[in-house]
Design brief:
The complex is a heterodimer of chains A (255) and B (417). By secondary structure, chain A is an all-alpha fold. Chain A has one domain. Helices cover 85% and strands 0% of the residues of chain A. The longest helix of chain A is centred in the middle third of the chain and has 31 residues, at 83-113. Classes of the chains: A mainly alpha (255), B mainly beta (417).
């Protein structure tokens, strides 16, 4: 498995996309730290990149990569290697390289310019989101044989989690505003990894406002480390479940 | 007679009084074993020196002009039954004691030091541990409460009184005290022309400072931190609040500074950091807010529509979740020349003032006001889009609530002295 991961990794490096992505993140982060001396505000601006750009790049890149290496996969399948091993090797190679790009691009300047707890939360949620969206990309890739369709599905995933889902959530909150919605909204938010990552950041950046919320349930949730543990567990589920499903489909699929 | 000569005469008189006054030493193994006994034999103007030890004497009534000095903090224990010291004379000084365990009562306001009609009372360098009320003064003028420490350790609001409680007093000075764990740190009702300065009031169950019907007072250089409900100033006119720090007052309906029915007051050079709501205003008129720093608050200012003729000038708003919230569309207040870190305008003529007005009321604030749950969607892309649309065509937010001359750079505020 490690050998296959290594081959895929070399292949990814050869396309230079990862380099460009790292450079882009590096430039953005350095520029923001140069423009603003207030670390908190820089984290705030970076948060928008993490919540929007990172998922988009992760999901589109992974899908394209999967289809580009289709021939390689077919070649490997002709060897006496387990399908699951090949698929997971692909996944790990892509996930590790994207995480590495993100950590280098955002993490390095952050360490250089000095960051606090909110900076590390940002790094953490960025890595988690990368992993989640790579998983989703692999799922959408095995769902169809057509590359264009798969990219379409991947984009839809991104669009859904970044925008449509929040719209629905807002509509629900608006419609049922007279009811106690605390647990319901928390459950609904855990159905969206982007929202979860955002809540993790809110706990760092807007804790004063969140503590103003009436519900004792939220206060307990936000006031302790429970918020962090809960969202980490749910994000981990968001990473493993799509990969697991995709592996199942892939190992049974007629290629 | 000229004023200097009068002064000299008074000084001479005082000096002679001091030399005439005797001093009585109270010591556990000595001739006089109790403070009560010492007070009984003392003449007005005497000094009672209390040596170290534990004194359990019930309620000690000071009914003569006396100076009570504790040497290395003698402990005066109320054994949870009575008020510890009750002062009923003018010009009394109580200094250097450790006053512990006063009685608690829901009928009487039992205190570590209680005083009724005791003008010129000085309370200095005492420790109040587990007292119901710390200091409770009524109907007294010209008192000085200085360098004391108050520490109560109860969990419920009804089980503890206020740290420093003044009722119907005037010209009091409350300086450099530390108050923790009481109901209200400092409580003022009908107290006029008094000064509160350099105190630290934190972890109190209700308000760090509670003001009612107390006109012409000043408070400055105090720190109010993590109190149950922050600081409340109510039904008062002409209060001056400067150089204070309001910090980490967190929770639902918890305010850094609650202003209710205040007029002709000044809030200058204060720091509001990480409060859920830094300033909440209701029925406030003709009050000036200048040179304050609002940083990392949930809401920097919540202005109810019942406020009028207030001015907000030269304040810095940095990294607050929401800068401004209001519940009406009619704007009767002036908001000008502040620094807003959310301002996105430009400054073509480079005079340091933005060329387009800034609207501090965020559209999403109005939604959160109606549906508190909606705060969970804050900073999502959807909310960002909604805000953008609202900025272009203001529909929900009050159109006239704007800063016409927003500063491009944060002011160099002098909030510490």
């Amino acid at each position: 498995m490690v050998r296959i991961v290594k081959y895929v990794f070399y292949d990814i490096l050869r396309t230079r996309f990862i380099m460009l992505y790292t450079l882009f993140l590096l430039l953005c982060t350095v520029a923001m730290f140069q423009l603003d001396t207030d670390t908190g505000k820089v984290i705030l601006s970076l948060m928008n990149i993490v919540l929007m750009v990172v998922p988009l790049v992760s999901i589109v890149f992974s899908t394209i990569h999967f289809y580009n290496s289709y021939e390689f996969i077919e070649l490997m399948l002709s060897q006496p290697v387990n399908r699951r091993v090949i698929f997971l090797s692909e996944y790990f190679a892509v996930a590790i390289s994207l995480c590495f790009a993100f950590t280098a691009g955002v993490g390095l300047p952050m360490v250089l310019y000095g960051a606090d707890a909110s900076g590390f939360t940002l790094l953490y949620s960025g890595i988690m989101l990368t992993l989640v969206f790579v998983s989703l990309a692999f799922l959408s890739s095995v769902l169809t044989r057509d590359k264009a369709k798969a990219i379409g599905v991947a984009l839809l995933f991104w669009f859904y989690f970044s925008l449509i889902y929040d719209g629905l959530l807002m509509w629900i909150i608006y419609t049922f505003m007279d009811y106690p919605l605390e647990k319901a909204t928390l459950a609904l938010i855990s159905l969206n990894p982007v929202d979860l990552a955002r809540i993790l950041m809110l706990l760092q950046l807007d804790i004063s406002a969140l503590m103003g919320y009436t519900g004792a349930f939220y206060k307990e949730f936000f006031g302790s480390s429970r918020g962090l543990i809960f969202s980490s567990v749910v994000l981990a589920l968001w990473i493993t479940l799509p990969v697991w499903g995709a592996t199942r489909i892939f190992s049974r699929k007629d290629l | 007679m000229n004023p200097i000569r009068i002064n000299t005469t008074i000084t001479l008189l005082l000096l002679s009084a001091a030399t005439m006054a005797g001093s009585i030493v109270v010591q556990p193994g000595g001739q006089i074993k109790s403070i009560r006994q010492a007070i009984a034999i003392a003449l007005p103007g005497d000094t009672i020196i209390v040596k170290p030890g534990i004194y359990r004497e019930g309620n000690i009534i000071v009914d003569k002009t006396l100076v009570l000095l504790g040497e290395s903090k003698p402990e005066i224990d109320g054994e949870y039954k009575t008020e510890v010291f009750t002062v009923a004379a003018r010009h009394v000084t109580i200094a250097g004691f450790k006053i512990v365990n006063s009685g608690t009562s829901s009928m009487k306001d039992l205190a570590g030091i209680g005083a009724l009609q005791a003008d010129f009372l000085t309370i200095r360098k005492n420790e109040f541990i587990n007292t119901f009320f710390g200091v409770h003064l009524s109907n007294s003028g010209f008192s000085v409460i200085e360098d004391n420490v108050f520490q109560a350790a109860v969990r419920n609001e009804y089980e503890t009184g206020n740290g420093i409680h003044l009722w119907q007093c005037s010209q009091a000075i409350i300086r450099k005290n530390t108050i923790r764990g009481h109901r209200d740190g400092i409580y003022f009702e009908f107290v006029t022309q008094s000064v509160i300065e350099g105190n630290l009031s934190e972890h109190n169950l209700r308000y760090g400072l509670h003001f009612m019907f107390s006109h012409d007072d000043e408070y400055h250089n105090n720190i109010f931190r993590e109190n149950g409900a922050g600081v409340a100033v109510m039904y008062t006119r002409n209060v001056k609040m400067t150089y204070n720090v309001f910090e980490k007052n967190w929770g639902n309906s918890v305010y850094g500074l609650l202003l209710k029915d205040i007029s002709d007051s000044q809030v200058l050079n204060n720091r509001f950091i990480q409060n859920t709501i830094a300033i909440y205003m209701e029925g406030t008129s003709r009050t000036e807010f200048t040179g304050n720093l609002f940083s990392e608050n949930g809401w920097a200012i919540k202005l109810q529509a019942s406020c009028d003729a207030n001015t907000f000038t030269g304040n810095n708003f940095k990294r607050n979740t929401f800068d401004f919230a209001t519940n009406g569309t009619l704007v009767l207040n002036t908001i000008n020349r502040n620094y807003w870190d959310k301002y996105q305008g430009y400054d073509l003529n480079r005079d340091g003032i933005g060329d387009v007005p800034h609207r501090p009321v965020n559209m999403y604030t109005m939604i959160v006001e109606r549906i508190p749950t909606a705060v969970l969607l804050w900073r999502s892309f959807l909310v960002y889009l909604l805000d953008r649309a609202e900025k272009v065509f203001p529909a929900v937010t009050p159109e006239n609530l704007k800063d016409d001359y927003p500063s491009m750079k944060p002011y160099d505020l002098n909030t510490t002295t």
